[in-house]
Request: fold
Amino acid sequence: MAEALGIAASIIAIIKTSRVVGNGISKLSSLRQAPDILLALNNEVNDLQCVVEHLLDLERQYKDTLEEAITPSFRRAIEMTNGALLGLENLIAYRLTKIDSRDGRLCVDRSSWLGVCHKIPQALKEIRDCRIRLLTAMNLLTSYKW
Reply:
C-alpha cells in the first residue's frame, strides 16, 4: 500500500513538473513573437487614441448643439478610456520596451516581457471594452435628434 502511495506521489510530482516546464517553454517561445505582439498592442492603443481625439473634437465643435446629448455616460466613457490608455502606454513604455545600448533603438525588454506577457490578453480585452464604450457613446450622439 505504501509503495502504491509513493508511486502515485511520484506521478503527481512528474505531472506538476511537466506543467511548470511546459509553461516555461511557452513563455520562452513567446519571446520570438514579442516584437509583433508589442507592435500590434501599440497600434491598437494608437488607434484608440485617435478615436478618443476625434470624439473630443466633435464634442468641442458641436458643444452648444450637443449639450443635451452629451451625457455623463459619454464623458465617463471618455475618461475611462483615457485612464485605460494611460495604463497601457505605461505598460508599453516602461515595462515592455527599452533602449538598445548597441544602436539606441527601441526594442522589447525580454526580461520584463517574461514577467508581463500574461497581461497582454487582458490589455487587449481592455482595449475592446473601451472601444465598445466609445461606440456606444458615439451611437448616443449620432442618434440625437437635431
Observations:
- The chain is about 80% helix and 5% strand.
- The helical segments are 2-61, 63-66, 72-96, 110-116, 120-142.
